[in-house]
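Quick start: load a record and inspect it. Here is Hsp33 family molecular chaperone:
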Amino acid sequence: MAEAAAALGQFDFAGDDHVVPFQVEGLDVRGRAVQLGPMLDAILERHHYPAPVARLLAEVVVLTVLLGTSLKFDGKFTVQTKGDGPVDLLVADFSTPENVRAYARFDQALLAKAVEAGETEPEQLLGKGVLAFTIDQGKFAQPYQGIVALDGTSLEEIAGVYFRQSEQIPTRVRLAAAELFDRDDAGKPRHRWRAGGLVAQFLPEAPERMRHPDLHGGDGDNGDRPHGEDDAWVEARSLVETIDADELTDPLVGTERLLFRLFHERGVRVYEPRAVFDRCSCSRDKIKGVLKGFSAEEIEESQENGEIAVTCEFCSTTYRFEPTELQPAE
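Running the structure step on this input writes:
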């Protein structure tokens, strides 16, 4: 069933935790935009991450949601960073059609030193390493993985490199996260996390128009703009780059309003939003299946106070097992 387009104002706004697909026909651009609120807040507050870590993970969650909701098949999309900085691991995955989970790993001592030194930019916290994008279609296909270097640039820029290398589609990604302090309906102080993002891609009918710019410094560098870059894409990219981080996270600037601000002169269309949810894929049966593959010695070593406790790194749920549950049936 085809997605139905609607003009701004003909339906209720998507609101938080809904991805809004859009199209700008006048610029041959398609994309998705999102603002995350309660769903993201639940993920971050569950682990009580320090603010610099929470902000980083929030951006990764937004990126994962934007890209994962583009899948046209049942499967899982995962974004993972591994670096030598204070935050050495970030993981977020999207399981079709709507489930998101994420967690971060960091060195408390190194993080404290970085904060004290004022070195809290994403590239400083992640350090050198890799950013991996993995698409898993299940048992019927081999997983696909694209790897991009963490080279001291922002997650936005690294995502753009991924698209250039893997999909050969001109793409601009914007990401932002914000920590909000306000009061709830009862007047009590409240702390919340929000994040937002947008991905725009140039998809003209004529494939030759999608030519990527030459690298600066080469024979094709004309000093003003990359040789061969289409005028429509130059305009679209320039508009996307005018977005302030605050606009992506402001609860008073909904996703549709932001898209209208950017592209109304070119005729932006928005499509039916897709909700996303904080839902982990762990279960007692799955973990039990893993533990039943342990040797008797490993089962013995894993016990504490006569039981085995396993806590999911994503959702913090703890599953407890009696050793007798894990013994093979006679």
